[in-house]
Amino acid sequence: MPNFFNYSFENPWFFTNYSFLFILGLFLLLYAFLLDKSVLKKAYVILFSLFFYYKSSGPYLIFFIIMIIADYNFAHWIEKVINKRIRKLLLTLSILCSLSFLIYFKYAGFFIQTINDLFESSFYLSDLFLPIGISFYTFQSISYIIDVYDRKIPSSKNFTDYAFYMTFFPHLVAGPIVRARDFIPQINNPLVVDRNLLYESLFRIMTGFGKKLLLADFLAKYVDMLYSSPSSYSGAENLLGMYAYSCQIYFDFSGYSDIAIGIALLMGYRLKENFENPYRSVSITQFWRKWHISLSTWLRDYIYIPLGGNRKGVLNTYLFLMITMTIGGFWHGANWKFVLWGVLHGLALAVHKWFAGKSEKSTKGSNSLVRSIYVLITFHFVSLLWIFFRASHSSVAWDSIEQIFTNQHWADYYGFYLGRTTLVYLLLGSLIIIFSPRRVKELVRAAFIKIPVWSLPILLIIFFQIIQQFRNTEIQPFIYFQF
After folding, report:
1. Tens digit of pLDDT for each residue in 387-437?
2. Domain-wise residue ranges, the chain
3. Catalytic residue from among 171, 292, 332, 345
4. Residue 65: is it exposed, middle or buried by C-beta count within 10 angstroms (0-12/13-18/19+)?
5. pTM surpassing 0.85?
6. Active site residue 345
């Protein structure tokens, strides 16, 4: 029992922990008895969600609670005040309050190190623990405050409802970033979990587990080895490592989103989709409409459009795209490699927008061969930039890119196949899944939903037995936990 209340910074509690799955089963059992008791149900979910966060971040839970209380009150004050200047002041104070925790824990060390590098000073700040999920719930809190300020939504009149929205554990630590306008109305009007919804939720959860434990974690072993010293490996190995990481990060993060959406459905709440076949995009613009949708739409609605969007001239539009994606890169991590990653994506979006009148229309009416070429170009551009995302430092990323472009020998691919046959087939299978049309995935989902009820427990037992047999012996934390 004492271990049950322990927390670990090194080994956070997440969906693929067997201890979490056991506790989740007990949680859902009691939750089912509270469905008709709205107040008790909400209090129960909030307490469990806070416990879930505590298991990963321990005492840092207090900062999360402070943010919830502060923004709940700020929203009320902003809604009541008529004076525009005071309203704007309250909005600014609220955003600064929310950002202060994020800036301190995530970026203080980065800023101090940058100052030291620029001015040869010796300021020191001990390594800080980054509270898990702080980037996600900070953006979620800011979107709520801004929407109340813009009078797009009323402030929540019930603190319990707002706390439920902010703490809801399926999306708490790694998204999707949930908007208040989408979620709060569901709190008191949850979906009825019938047979179809139950099957849909279980399908999403199983899909997420498969993506994470059977694909992402196995690919991670080779990716980790390669990026420890990419210059020690051939161009072929670096190129295949690039493909492997592109698959890994997609399966890892979309797998988490699938599990989060599935658990939420089991409880009667629907979270918005976070991925929509992003690697089948015909342009970088379309990619960002399909990848990490909750973040890309957040950046669009709360940074790009308020800056001016496409309303202030062509040059400003490109500048706003660059600023937005640079902020998006910096959101991912306090490191210049993320800034560079964001800048390059912003540049690519600006370039594509320049040619949008030609390329966007031509891809819609083009034949499948032309569209496939566009897809391959977009996929390889995105994958190349993922190298900066994965490498420990920009110099390591450049080493890998240099190997890819200057150290290619066809014989190395055959040698790789002979030496790492299992990895080759796993990578090929991953790419087939990634590039499969949506209708294929829908057919699989439809087939699952038709399974007789009596056979569902058997299927679940077989599935998790396969997971147990083939998963990596050491479960890797979800990649986006570090953000």
Report:
1. 999 998 999 999 999 999 999 899 999 999 998 999 999 999 999 999 998
2. 2-187, 195-482
3. 332
4. middle
5. yes
6. no
